[in-house]
Amino acid sequence: MRTTVKIKLIVSSAFLALSLSSGAADIEAGKAKAAMCASCHGAAGISAMDIWPSLAGQKTGYLAKQLKAFRDGSRSDPVMNAQAKGLSDADIDNLSAFYNSLK
């Protein structure tokens, strides 16, 4: 691979990583919104039951992808589909940032 192509690829990757970061998300807003999640996933994102996953420390991209899939119905769970249906993209970003911050 030529050096200029490598440099362009590295720069493009850096810009993509910056655009996908949760820097614009509001962790405090995510914490407030997470109150509805606590009964299953735990107040600190650690589930007390094996049937519900712990969310603390999960990557923001993974959490956002799963919430969007529940919201649009491409991932099916009656409880989660109902919970995610009313979430905006900003809500999802904020929730993802909040749970990611609980390491």
Which features does this protein show?
single chain; about 100 residues; mainly alpha; Cytochrome Bc1 Complex, Chain D, domain 2
Q: Can you lay out the helices and strands and say which pair or pack?
A:
Blueprint: H1 3-20, H2 27-33, H3 38-41, H4 60-72, H5 78-85, H6 89-101
Overview of this protein structure:
About 5% of the residues have low confidence. It is built from six helices and no strands. Helix 2 crosses helix 6, helix 4 crosses helix 5 and helix 4 packs antiparallel against helix 6. Helices cover 61% and strands 0% of the residues. The chain has a single domain, classed as Cytochrome c-like domain (Cytochrome Bc1 Complex, Chain D, domain 2, Orthogonal Bundle). The longest helix has 18 residues. It is an all-alpha fold and 103 residues long.
In brief, what are we looking at here?
The chain is an all-alpha fold and 103 residues long.
CATH topology: Cytochrome Bc1 Complex, Chain D, domain 2
- Series of H and E elements: HHHHHH
Q: Number of folding domains?
A: 1
User: Overall 3D geometry?
Assistant: globular
CATH top level label: Mainly Alpha
Count of separate DSSP helical elements:
6
Low-confidence stretches: 18-22
